[in-house]
Amino acid sequence: MTELGDKLKAARREKGLSLDDLQQITKIQKRYLVAIEEGNYSVMPGKFYTRAFIKQYAEAVDVDSTQLFAEFESEVPESQQEVVDQEQSRAQKKAAPLTTHSVGGQSSSRSRFFDILPKVLIAVFILFILFIIWYFVFAKSNDGAVETQNNNSNQTVQVKDDTGSSTKKSDDSSDAAAKKKAEETKSS
Questions:
Q1: Pick from 34, 28, 39: which is nearest to 1 by CA?
Q2: Do the Cβ atoms of 48 and 82 come closer than 8 Å?
Q3: N or C: which end of the chain has fewer CB within 10 A?
Q4: pLDDT by residue (tens digit) across 39-82?
Q5: Which superfamily, per CATH, for 3-80?
Q6: Where does the HTH cro/C1-type domain lie (predicted)?
Q7: What is the pTM of this model?
Q8: DSSP for 4-42?
């Protein structure tokens, strides 16, 4: 145990708090609180977090953290350089996703493909919708025109035999033309 850990532990007990209570107040894991009380800072995730956790612990048990750091300066790990390094690495991590580069220094073609893919899919979908609309508007109107042509081609033709009897028959125009030809050959 260290003097810093003893002082914080005594302050915690004076307030009537258990480690579980302190964990809920500070949102610091219990194992880190125990490590602070024991002075085992190697368990901590880093020097910056060690200082931050000690400060939170002290504030939760109503101990002045600045005075605590000044009093136990030799026990508390210094973290000035680590803070600067962490801030730089955070900035680099935030900037890295913005420009992804391959080994050659050129932008990755795969990431460009995935950037363009949603736009391509939307364009294909719009073209599909336009084709469906075209089909129902123009293709259906052409079907109606074909039906009217078929209705007009079915004509009633009156044919006279040599016997003098007349029959009415409904045929296509090609059949009517063939019968007319046959009739002309009979009469000549």
A1: 39
A2: yes
A3: C
A4: 888 888 888 888 888 888 888 888 888 888 788 777 777 765 54
A5: lambda repressor-like DNA-binding domains (1.10.260.40)
A6: 8-68
A7: 0.42
A8: HHHHHHHHHHHTT--HHHHHHHH---HHHHHHHHHT-GG
